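User: My collaborator sent over this chain with a note saying "see what the structure looks like." That's all I know about it. Can you take a look?
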Amino acid sequence: LQACGRPEEALAHYQDAVRIKPDFAQARNNLGNALQALGSSEQALSHYQHAVRIRPDYAKAKTWFEKAIGADHANAHYALAGMYHHGLGMGRDYPKAAQLYEEAANHAPGQWHPEAYYNLGYLYDQRLAEKRSNFMAFRHYRTAALQGHKHAQYYLGLYYYEGRNLGNRLILIH
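Assistant: Without extra context I'll predict from the sequence alone. Here is the result:
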């Protein structure tokens, strides 16, 4: 039905298949395709991610995350950043991961992505990002920590506890 240009009808069948067998990766993927065709990219991405967890196919995941990025989806930036960060289906590329985390973090004004900020802080902290900076690590950890991210709160605490060098930057605490 999907191939015949009838995604609404296909959607109902894919939903039934997923209801009957929730861990059927192909049904999850097809449900994602139908949802994408109907303009529900956020729901589609959720089903693509579930399918990848069931049966990882990193090449296809990368392709679909890139399509979702083309549709301006913040979580797709984050998911693809994770693939580059951890080398899933490709070599590790920390600068590319940092760029994608930055895009996810700054996706829309007022819509912060604490995990993206935390991962940015980690990449800067471990000297894995292209720009190497204690100040940038501190800044990103702080942004994530203020959003309640517990690991970022811990690392931010370490910065204060260890008195890490932040250069000549003045840190304003609200």
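A starting point for your reply to your collaborator: The first helix runs from residue 7 to 20.
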